[in-house]
Please model this.
Amino acid sequence: MSEFAPSEIPHALADQPPDFGRAIACLRQAGVGQFDPVRLHYLEVLARRAQDQQGPVQRILEDKLAQALAALAARFEQAQGQARDRMARITPQYPQAADELRRLYLAGDFRGLERCTTTLKTSNRPTPLGDLARAMAQVAPDKAEGHGEGYGGSRPELKTMRYFRNTWSKLSVEKQVTQALGQAPKNAGPINSHMLVVRSLALMREISPDYLNRYISYVDTLLCLDQSDKKSKPLPKKPPVVKTAKR
Model:
């Protein structure tokens, strides 16, 4: 692809008869096929229709084609100038992406160039979640070992205690899964919800025991939160009984 030369379009249309094929080829070579492929295809079809006609019909189609070609060339030239300015601003900030930006520019993919520049800007922008993750990583127990005091003056967890805690957690999960498998319904259908859950637990235990431990811990936490939420809600009051006077 080469940079668009707008002077080629008037020269091609000034020929007698107008060389619409050369004008369309110039646009395609400049990258209009990426910029607006639907409009370019429409112009190619219109050029073939005009070539097959004669007399007044041909002149009407040629006038329509010339106007459409000039309008598309003007739109492409404007978008090309905006993309050139955008590339000139962003390239000094991200020199590692200069080749990709120039490739998109020469191909006429100005939307792709805009998406690329947006990605470059947002990828280096700090986010609150990223800051929180970095702060948590700095005070993680693995990094806190070897220091006299942990975060906030608390001592880091001993490796032995962590080992026993993880072991008891795995044994508890294994016991819960074994009980769930033992309570599986007999003669259940293939889409029975209880049976599907049991099969999922069995597969998780076989494929990834660590993931199963985390999953069970997550479910237990949700159950505890649900139970505490139910306890905190006040019981609904009974509506007062309205006594009617006897007549």
About this structure: The radius of gyration is 36 Å. The mean pLDDT is 76. The chain has two domains: 8-123, 158-231. The CA atoms of residues 8 and 26 lie 7 Å apart.
